[in-house]
Amino acid sequence: MGAIAAGALVNRMLMALLGISGEITTTSGVIRSTMNNLMMQNPLIAPALLLLILILAAIMGAVTGAIFILPSARLSEDYLAITLLAISEVMFMVAYYNPNIIGGYYGVSVPDIFAWAPAEWRTVLFASLVIVTAAVIYILLDRILTSPYGRLLRAMREDEEVVKACGREVMWIRVRTVALGSAVAAIAGALYSLYTLNVIATSFGRVEWTFYPFLMILLGGAGNRKGILLGTLSFVLIKILLTTYKYEISDLLHLPFETVWLEYIIFGVMMLLILLYRPEGLLKEEPIMTEPMKRCVNEEH
């Protein structure tokens, strides 16, 4: 949804604002060139455009996440996950084969929000933007997960029947939680589209955008924010090392297959090993300590 917000919604808003007409696939290049020139003349346009894209992405992600989970929110966890994966696959196919959304298999271009800066600074600036955005989202989620709502989510994860017995409506908790998660995921998709300067459905495959994030969570520790950070850093480090040295590893081990499959095999084996021998991940989940609980602990000591 974040990529669709950046490539479809914002591009069409810019088309109307700049007075550009035509098909989205042919005009997106003109929009990018025009906006890049405007941002080079007035850099203040860049943060305004960035905020617009991120806000629209979060709203679209939250709304579509809430709508799509409504028909399946009463299913059990396994069936719910399968249904959500199927819905995401349908959205992928629709976005890929319908050129009126994000250009179909042609894709569309998006403006470069760092067009005002020298080209050699772009990587550093974008990395800084991603780190700042991740830090803000981490702080917001930390506040949410340590609130009564966060404790309710943990209780629902452990036993939904207990939550129902306490008078809570599990379906609406799921809807709100999926809306929140979809908003965060949409922001990530929008940032990736702004980084690549191009939006096409094939950029968001199941391996990179479903399997790998799931592996990061398993590696670091589910239900553990610090663990997920550690898992993400570990995964990225391993991936970079594999990408850089895969031919040297293949020559050293005399692998009987092409090196392009090495990464997928290693990450698949890693997931199996984690599930078998350390399902809690690198860091175990810590209990939520509220202020009254902290006072009780301090008084005991």
From TrEMBL:
Transmembrane in keyword set: yes
GO cellular component: plasma membrane
Membrane topology label: Multi-pass membrane protein
Metal-binding as UniProt keyword: no
Alphabetical list of InterPro entries matching this protein: ABC_transp_permease, LivM-like
GO function terms (MF aspect): branched-chain amino acid transmembrane transporter activity
Keywords from the UniProt entry: Cell membrane, Membrane, Transmembrane, Transmembrane helix
Species of origin: Candidatus Syntropharchaeum caldarium
UniProt protein name: Branched-chain amino acid ABC transporter permease
Location within or outside the cell: Cell membrane
